[in-house]
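Z., the sequence and structure:
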Amino acid sequence: NKLNPFDRESRSQINSIEISNNVTSIGGWAFKGCDSLENITIPNSVTSIGESAFEGCSSLTSITIPKGVTSIEFDAFKDSALTSITLPRKFAGHERRMGIPNNCKVHYYSE
């Protein structure tokens, strides 16, 4: 079975993603609506995360953002199920803008 990332039904079947080490950016709306996504591995090569990239990922409860990420756009995590996120300290105070849920425990790397 080949998944069409633009097809809503296919997006619902994705439960785990490992992003390749040569990827530097996660585009806007990249995983929006992947409501079965439970696990994602983001490599250290990624430096930016686009608008609404993980919006509606209602099964994603935890995510670690690499230290080298310098840009996380508006509502990147809106309507996700995040209860835990680890990210660079430079994003402290921007949780609401990124759409991180209010009940999510935010952990920052020591710099």
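The radius of gyration is 13 Å. The chain has a mean pLDDT of 92.

Let me know what you think.
H.
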